Amino acid sequence: MRARIDEELALLRQVYGEVGHVEQAGEDWFHLPRYAVPVGWRIGGEAVDHLPVAFLIKGDYPGAAPYGFLLPKGVNYGGTPPNNTGDQPKAVPFPGEWLHFSWSVENWAATCDVRKGSNLVAWCRSFAVRLKEGP
Questions:
Q1: pLDDT (tens digit, 9 = 90+) per residue, 63-74?
Q2: Domain ranges of the chain
Q3: Is 0.85 topped by the overall pTM?
Q4: What are the distances in angstroms from CA 127 to CA 3, 5, 24, 25, 31?
């Protein structure tokens, strides 16, 4: 499992540059400091084109698909709070307060080769699908 996480982290860094990672009690947290978001997203009243994003990978990964991602608390779409969100599910090891977006991908199919099938890069790219939906 650790070798898989190391390979996935390397892939994430190839695509997103700086990526933070913290292992806690057999689970893995990831932090992308600058994730591009579609037009319309704001923090408070300020329009943004990038936001930090964090997500948790449970110990049964990659057999089970990841679930949910976090954006900074106070994020909104044109002043409207996003749907299907809630308080962060547990202590996040990255600075700030976070809002949990309920999100999952369809047809999760991880393979032994992290470059084929479902992986964390595809997971992160899927956040854009949710964010294009707006609030």
A1: 999 999 999 999
A2: 2-132
A3: yes
A4: 25, 20, 23, 25, 13
